[in-house]
């Protein structure tokens, strides 16, 4: 089947109406701009002929009912279908605590955005003839109420059935947590691990067997495209974090039947009241990321002393911002050899050490 369509991805919106915003010195999200940045992007997308829009989770800052209601009503005004999945911020507690909705409440807010069956936290739907979306829920809770990032057995069994029933369709999967590593050693690093799906190998095996190649994720707040044995994990940076990106994607089929996915990324440079949004946001991220940089330096594999980490951390002020922007190249010639090699591994390079700038704009050939 000759498929040609265009869609967009906006991730980690963290929508926060003014009365729901709280301040904390460690807050990493510039949620004050969540609504004006979203409006800016939607205005840009209005000039395009989109077939649909994907929002891979963290739709709200802390699962506030008012923020979920506002977003659902705003999406209803769009001229194209929109599909969502929950992120960890959308359902921070299993049961509603009065401040945030409970896990089972989420589909009821988004019945028009994938959840035809509000009694189920995952879904599948036909986007276009021959094109199917699978929206997964990666939010679970243990018996102590701790939030986990994984797929439960019932969801995996359901997924196996859906993949078998629609093996002739082009399938897109959307899930909040990453399923392929976007950072070196992400699945083993305590900082990066929290952004990975705990049972990602199980999901990847199922997707490969069904020849599913495209997975859209969020959570990490980084522009990155990673591939593992034929499965692409396209993660999109956050609407409320530098560089405030979004993606427009086109799937095309040529005369020989070859399918390719063309990816272009945009940025929101300014919004009313934030004329220097990019620089302000970059500085904000640099300041708030210093505790994470200290952790990164002091934990394995570097295991530097607190004094050694404190000496190097200021040189990493822009590290996370550069990483979030995608396609970064890193060089720290004054660092000790082990630290220099470690941070150079975060550069956008291929297996041969050559530049590989595919995080923002790329063309992926599909089988």
TrEMBL record:
Signal peptide from the UniProt entry: none
InterPro entries the UniProt entry points to: Calcineurin-like_PHP, CNP_phosphodiesterase-III, Metallo-depent_PP-like, Pesterase_cyn
Gene3D superfamilies documented for this protein: 3.60.21.10
Keywords: Hydrolase, Iron, Metal-binding
Pfam families: Metallophos (PF00149)
SUPFAM superfamilies referenced in this protein's UniProt entry, alphabetically: Metallo-dependent phosphatases (SSF56300)
Residue span, Calcineurin-like phosphoesterase domain: 5-222
Keyword Hydrolase: yes
Organism domain of life: Bacteria
Family affiliation: Belongs to the cyclic nucleotide phosphodiesterase class-III family.
Name used for this protein in its record: Metallophosphoesterase
Record organism: Stenomitos frigidus AS-A4
């Amino acid at each position: 089947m000759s498929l040609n369509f265009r869609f967009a991805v906006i991730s980690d919106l963290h929508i926060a109406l003014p009365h729901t915003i709280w301040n904390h010195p460690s807050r990493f999200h510039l949620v004050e701009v969540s609504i004006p940045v979203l409006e800016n992007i939607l205005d840009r997308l209005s000039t395009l002929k989109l077939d649909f829009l994907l929002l891979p989770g963290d739709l709200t800052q802390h699962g506030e009912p008012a923020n979920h209601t506002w977003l659902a009503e705003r999406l209803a005004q769009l001229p194209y279908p929109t599909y969502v999945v929950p992120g960890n911020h959308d359902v921070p507690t299993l049961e509603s605590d009065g401040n945030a909705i409970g896990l089972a409440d989420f589909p009821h807010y988004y019945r028009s955005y994938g959840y035809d069956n509000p009694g189920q936290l995952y879904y599948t739907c036909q986007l276009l003839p021959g094109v199917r979306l699978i929206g997964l829920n990666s939010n679970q809770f243990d018996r102590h109420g701790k939030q986990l990032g994984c797929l439960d057995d019932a969801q995996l069994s359901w997924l196996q059935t859906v993949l078998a029933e629609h093996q002739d369709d082009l399938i897109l999967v959307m899930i909040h947590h990453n399923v392929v590593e976007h950072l070196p050693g992400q699945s083993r690093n305590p900082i990066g691990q929290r952004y990975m799906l705990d049972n990602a190998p199980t999901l990847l095996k199922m997707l490969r067997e069904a020849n599913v190649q495209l997975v859209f994720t969020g959570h990490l707040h980084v522009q990155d495209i990673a591939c593992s044995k034929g499965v692409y994990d396209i993660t999109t940076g956050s609407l409320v974090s530098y560089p405030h990106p979004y993606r427009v994607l086109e799937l095309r089929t040529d005369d020989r039947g070859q399918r390719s996915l063309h990816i272009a990324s945009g940025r929101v440079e300014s919004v009313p009241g934030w004329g220097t949004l990019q620089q302000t946001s970059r500085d904000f991220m640099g300041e708030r990321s210093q505790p994470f940089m200290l952790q990164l330096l002091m934990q394995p594999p570097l295991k530097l002393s607190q004094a050694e980490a404190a000496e190097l951390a200021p040189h990493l002020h822009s590290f996370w911002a550069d990483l979030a922007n995608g396609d970064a190249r890193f060089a720290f010639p004054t660092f000790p050899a082990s630290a220099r090699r470690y941070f150079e591994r975060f550069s956008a390079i291929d297996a041969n050490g050559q530049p590989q700038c595919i995080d923002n704009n790329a063309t992926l050939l599909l089988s």
